[in-house]
User: Which sequence fits this backbone?
DNA sequence: GTATTTACCTACCAAGTAAGTAGGTAGGTA
DNA sequence: TACCTACCTACTTACTTGGTAGGTAAATAC
């Protein structure tokens, strides 16, 4: 029982949503952490990841903070999670650089590949703006929707 | 980067496929382990899981071994992985018994729920017999197929 | 120029999990 | 009786998760 997406990816996603909801001004991490009820110190270790990827930029000093570098609708959940988690591969067999001598004959490999493509295809269709409350209606009815 | 399916689930699946390919007689774990190139000792720690679930039964003594308890087409990849991995939930938020006070308003929860249902729906459609080489053609063309 | 605010950096830690290994016991068959 | 096979308990090594602690560097306000 190990989860595909850890707190790192989940917190990162919540920070990105938070920034998308405050698009106009710079948001200090302290404020975001309080609003999201996440440890400031822990968030500080996650933010460099989003910054290196060019998803956000941060300015120092008084009045500083973080902000998105692109319009919110230009981010997908898939790319945010792929950066923060390192990989979204469901099994080691599909991980970047992994070589398996059974690959040519393994009967399970096609299943993992299909599973991987299903996961990727879905996560790459969900945009950051799809998770802003006013848009939540678009999710199917098995899911919570905030009206 | 933590994988949804560990070696435990992957090995279990390969053992189940192996048993499906030798449906008529009892297969000693030693033989299966050699054929699959998996540590016998490690497999011994995984088999009780499959036995408790009623997927296989094992008989002691000379000529003993393991065998499937049902016809191979009656097993799905989903149920085998769910038993061995404990859960296939992509995030802790969806794990059995987990309570999150943010659940009612969390904008990311619908995404995790949808992702979970996509994964489950796919894995529950793949049957054990779908992975026996002669049937592998049924996978789509982005995947390896053994003709 | 000083104080303050903020990002940013380095190191550490406790608990848990993954992926086995080692060495036996119990049950059944030839 | 000898052999084979499942089954059980304990241990190990390495790694990951989810943080905490304590600072430094940069920028701004006053």
Assistant:
């Amino acid at each position: 029982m190990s989860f595909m997406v850890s707190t790192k990816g989940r917190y990162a996603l919540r920070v990105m949503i938070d920034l998308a909801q405050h698009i106009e001004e710079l948001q200090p991490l302290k404020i975001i952490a309080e609003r999201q009820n996440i440890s400031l110190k822990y968030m500080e270790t996650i933010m460099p990841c989003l910054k290196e990827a060019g998803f956000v930029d941060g300015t120092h000093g008084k009045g500083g903070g973080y902000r998105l570098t692109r319009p919110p609708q230009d981010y997908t959940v898939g790319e945010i999670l792929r950066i923060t988690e390192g990989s979204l591969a469901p099994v080691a067999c599909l991980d970047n650089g992994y070589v398996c001598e059974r690959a040519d004959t393994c009967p399970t490999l096609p299943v993992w590949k299909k599973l991987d493509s299903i996961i990727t295809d879905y996560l790459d269709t969900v945009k950051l703006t799809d998770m802003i409350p006013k848009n939540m209606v678009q999710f199917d009815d098995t899911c919570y929707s905030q009206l």
About this structure: Residues 135-147 of chain B have pLDDT under 50 and may be disordered. The two ends of chain B are 34 Å apart (CA to CA). Chain B touches chain A through 53 residues (CB under 8 Å).
